[in-house]
């Protein structure tokens, strides 16, 4: 990772409130192409909101978001910030894949149709092209044999791998994972981790929110600990998990969840 390059994504002084709750409190982040970042922290600390602001599912109150060096998502009129045109937001969103805790597959579509949908409707691929891409991604996720079944017939681990294949079919530049294994039975966690690890090894840039410390330690270059909407600690993965570097707040948190 060369620090002189332009970050793939940069957040500058991001701030987000819900009523009186400050969900994101003046956060700064630079993520470079190929980097893998893990975000951990207690429930309610702002992890999901942070991912959602990056993907423009949430509008920030203050701050700026840059994608490949250009400010995105908002335009300024008479000094007032407003969300950019839906078309532009959609174009940006297409560059960023997001995987949620609860899969969010289309229940009335087969696995193959689920994965073809993005390339077809957003990327404007022909049906044949979309199918080729979808089959490719399903093969990568080890799900070719499930292509004609409906999501209801899949295990949680399989559903999540379809969700990952669907996100990948858009050929995103960045992948966001919001607790991708939290809704899974313990015996299904491994297959989803393996799928994400494979992407990491292929060089995908990613941010993963997880409570699975073993996974964060194994795949992340960098770890951020969030609390009350702020980054309490930001460190290289190795340093973060070495007991010397952990501050007492993080030690308590890790002891509780391990
Ligand atoms: P985490 O993902 O770390 O558990 P969240 O980002 O979901 O945290 O939430 C951060 C804070 O913002 C919490 O206090 C939560 O209750 C609040 N919050 C999140 N989304 C909303 C919303 N849509 N409306 C009101 N409050 C919200
Ligand atoms: Mg969350």
Automatic annotation (TrEMBL):
Residues 9-253 form the ABC transporter domain. InterPro entries: AAA+_ATPase, ABC_ATPase_HisP-typ, ABC_transporter-like_ATP-bd, ABC_transporter-like_CS, MetN_ABC_transporter-like, P-loop_NTPase. One of its GO terms (molecular function) is ABC-type amino acid transporter activity. It holds the Pfam family ABC_tran. PANTHER family: AMINO ACID IMPORT ATP-BINDING PROTEIN (PTHR43166), PHOSPHONATES IMPORT ATP-BINDING PROTEIN PHNC (PTHR43166:SF4). PROSITE patterns: ABC_TRANSPORTER_1, ABC_TRANSPORTER_2. SUPFAM superfamilies: P-loop containing nucleoside triphosphate hydrolases (SSF52540). Keywords: ATP-binding, Nucleotide-binding, Transport. Belongs to the ABC transporter superfamily. It comes from the Bacteria. The keyword Magnesium does not apply. Signal peptide: none annotated. This is Amino acid ABC transporter ATP-binding protein, PAAT family.
